[in-house]
Amino acid sequence: MAKENLTHDQQFTRLCENGFGFVAKAIEQLWENGSSEALKYSVINFYSGVELLLKARLMHEHWTLIVADPNKADVDEFLNGEAQTVGLKQAVQRLKKVAKVAVPTNAINSFEELRKHRNRMVHFYHPIDVNEPDQAKQREAVILEQCRGWFYLRRLLGDEWQDEFATFQVQVADINAAMKRHREYLGTVYEQIQPELVAAHQDGATLATCSACGFDAQVLDDIGPQEHKCRICLAKESFVLHPCPNDECGKKTLLAMGHCEAWECEHCGSSIDLDEVLCEYTIEGKADHDEPNMPALCTECGHIPETAGTLDDGETVFCFNCFSWPEKIEYCQWCNEPFTGDAEGTYWSGCEKCEGKAGWTWDE
Ligand SMILES: [Zn+2]
Ligand SMILES: [Zn+2]
Ligand SMILES: [Zn+2]
Ligand SMILES: [Zn+2]
Fold first, then answer.
1. Which residues, chain by chain, have CB under 5 Å from ion ligand 4?
2. pLDDT tens per residue, range 156-179
3. Ligand 4 mean position, distance from CA 92 (Å)
């Protein structure tokens, strides 16, 4: 038993070292010599590093989880590096299902974008002509996607998964330092577009801080839930802008994501009630609560009381706690409770709130 633990630790360490190594190499390559080859390998290596580090987090739970088919998990094959392991999507799914570790949607989208770009580079002959003006655009796209990817990855490795990656915080700090030129680049973009931001603000738009790049470059025009692309790093993010319920204040304020039970106005500190907000923007919130038309359980964040509702267009679903945009709301076929997702099969297996007929039968 002790032997297996030791090799497991060694494997974990090796996976992390490789992951950080690839990311560091990618950053170096991007600024190396401006050749199209260097740019291509930067894209490939950056993604490889991200994927290895996510796999490392999954492996921290148990090594069999990173093997594509856990039924065939063979420790020798695994240690020899011969086992077929999971890709990005599966790693994220298993982290959520098995380890109850949620990777935020924005982070997943950013990693997915890196994966797709990497695939284009690997699978298609994709020459970049150095003399073409397009080359500068390509480079800019890579800088921005690496910035976004690293912002999300750093938050996971350095904050949320700090315990699991405790021995690698030096590498996290080193990569952060190596990203300096990327960030300087963002700074020049900010200077270029600042007049545009100032004008938008004067026209009444609210400027929100982009959680990916940290610049106040998310331009919000309307009240209610909305998704925007950062004007600097192009990261997509969702916000809820809401008028303060205190008449003496009445200013527009941003509601904090993930804190729906503790919202308050950023100007006057008045507390803002979840029910009021649901009533303002959702069909369920406006309905008489004796009717079966209640806000739905969001299966992304699982917040109780329920936080997902249908916006006034009658179609779009939004969770006011985790700010996700679920595809649909359906009703459990057994207990009839609404939730975000697919109700097929719930008559038997139940939903997050009930055990379905199967559970009921076993109780007999
Ligand atoms: Zn940004
Ligand atoms: Zn206020
Ligand atoms: Zn949610
Ligand atoms: Zn149910």
1. 332, 334-335, 350-351, 354
2. 999 899 999 999 999 999 999 999
3. 26
pTM confidence score:
0.79
Angle at which helices 88-97 and 36-61 pack, to 10 degrees? 20
Instruction: Compute the distance from residue 218 Cα to the ligand 1 centre, in Å.
Output: 7
Closest-approaching ligand to the CA atom of 248: 2
Contact 320, 240 (CB under 8 A): yes
Q: Up-side HSE of residue 338: CA atoms within 13 Å toward CB?
A: 18
Rg of the chain (C-alpha set): 23
Each residue's pLDDT tens digit, 106-145: 899 999 999 999 998 888 765 555 556 677 888 888 999 9
CB 268 within 8 A of CB 262: no
Distance, in Å, from the CA atom of 348 to the CA atom of 360, rounded to the nearest integer, reads 9
Q: What are phi and psi of 61, to 5 degrees?
A: -70, -55
Q: How far apart are CA 243 and CA 252, in angstroms?
A: 4
- 318-346 pLDDT, tens per residue? 999 999 999 999 999 999 999 999 999 99
Amino acid of residue 256? A
Computed from CA positions of residues 170, 175, 181, 183, in that sequence, does the dihedral angle turn out positive or negative? negative
User: Ligand 4 centroid to 347 CA: how many Å?
Assistant: 8
- Tokens (6 digits) for 110: 């950013």
The tally of CA atoms less than 13 A away on the side-chain side of residue 190 is 15
Name the H helices within the chain: 2-32, 36-61, 75-79, 88-97, 105-123, 134-155, 169-178, 180-202, 274-281, 283-286, 346-349, 356-363
Phi, psi of 71 (to 5 degrees): -65, -25
How far, rounded to the nearest angstrom, does the alpha carbon of residue 168 sit from its chain's CA centroid?
A: 22
